[in-house]
Amino acid sequence: MSTFAAPKGIPEYYPPESARFLAVRETLGEAARRAGYGYIELPLFEDTALFARGVGESTDVVTKEMYTFPDQGGRSITLRPEGTAGVIRSVIEHGLDRGQLPLKLYYSGAFFRYERPQAGRYRQLQQVGVEAIGVDDPALDAEVIAIADEGYRRLGLTGHRIELTSLGDDSCRPEYRAKLQEFLRGLPLDEETRRRVELNPLRVLDDKRPEVREMVADAPLMADHLSQQAAEHYERVKTHLRDLGVPFTENPRLVRGLDYYTKTTFEFVHDGLGAQSGIGGGGRYDGLMADLGGAELSGVGFGLGLDRTMLACEVEGVHPGDQSRCDIYCVPLGEQAKRRLVSLAGQLRHAGIRVEVAYGGKGLKGAMKAADRSGARYALVLGERDLAEDSVQLKDLAGGQQESVPLSAVVEKARTVLSG
RNA sequence: GUGGGUGUAGCUCAGGCGGUAGAGCACUGGGUUGUGGUCCCAGGAGUCGCGGGUUCGAAUCCCGUCACUCACCCCA
Known about the structure:
- It is a single chain.
- By secondary structure, this protein is of the alpha+beta class.
- The chain has two domains: 17-172 and 226-316, Bira Bifunctional Protein, Domain 2 (BirA Bifunctional Protein, domain 2), CATH 3.30.930; 328-419, Rossmann fold, CATH 3.40.50.
- It is built from 16 helices and 16 strands.
- It has helices spanning 17-34, 48-55, 60-64, 84-94, 138-155, 173-185, 191-199, 201-204, 210-215, 228-244, 288-291, 306-316, 335-350, 364-374, 384-388, 410-419, and strands at residues 38-39, 45-47, 68-70, 76-79, 103-112, 124-133, 160-166, 249-250, 262-270, 278-284, 299-305, 328-332, 355-357, 378-382, 391-396, 402-406.
- α13 links the parallel β12 and β13.
- The chain is elongated and about 90 Å long.
- The two termini are 49 Å apart.
- The mean pLDDT is 93.
- The chain binds one RNA strand through α3, β6, β10, β11 and α12.
């Protein structure tokens, strides 16, 4: 056992898996860029109050899952548990919403939640997220959802599905909430759940326990209590999704754990990951900008969990980003040859070719074995005999045939042979 | 915070009715003094998570502890 271990609940990606991680991040980011979203790089920690107000005082995230500590100056700092609050803070602080709207941004990076780790749930998690701010158009909700779907498809995933609902808005949610609470208070629930009835009654609908599910089976649903305006918004989101060819299922019991969501909310679900089946989620948050001291601007966005997406790729057997790491593997025999090959490797790399060299005085057999494992298509073998005639052996590792190439012509030859 | 499971070689795991440690993969070398992938041979590598107890003797039995892991809860 080693002396040090990584902090609890933090996934680490090393080769070859890390190449997949990069591909997942890049593919999802590319889907956002393709729709006009620009990258925003933000702090990993913020003023604690930003999350308390932005995410919601009553949420589990704020009440028990934040990494909060005082810095040397006595300020209360919190490692970001989610992305939207920070984006909105930056937008307000720098007046990014003064230009043309919607403002479209995407981010990528680590988030932190102090939770008990389990499969797919980590204390440090990686997300790619987008935010579209300033335009309350159902077509924009649909675009955001379609971006995620496009990203997953590009990765090669087919087993994900989209769950959709509307949480209503200020004009109908308070009334519905009261009605739901009234219903729930009449049920014989345990103490913990009763507390939740008062804090966030919506979440009780999402309880996984069979006995609770049964009790709330005929609870009133938000979907049946939407205001005219919210219902119309929701209908149009669905229409646009159909037009986009993005399949979805409606789940009127879908609940998000963060307080800021209004109207459209959605979750990307993948079965087969264990208990943590949500690989991404998001929705509209029309009141958040104003709550954080900005203009009265609407917003819609999502966060996609990269770690869980990695798990989804694993169970589906798709391996984005997998490729050989090397085109040509150089095998020197002796010091003279090594000197020549090291320099040649530099020239080849300069020409954009991926090249490795057998270092450490490996024997020929060992070096050839390393060439094989590197995935290179060709090996360059250089020994005394070749040096004497200013040439090098170029071996096709798949077919096994080998030819002698003048050293001065190797770069050009390599280019030709690799492009073929 | 509450439960269950598991800790033996770098990785995946056998062994477990007590007698000082094994396999496969990986790695290194050799069979082939200038040629890899298959095959054969050899080698390095482990305080059996840690501490205590029982015993002539503990990886094995008992107690404690730590870690990892899955699930509840919650969420990406």
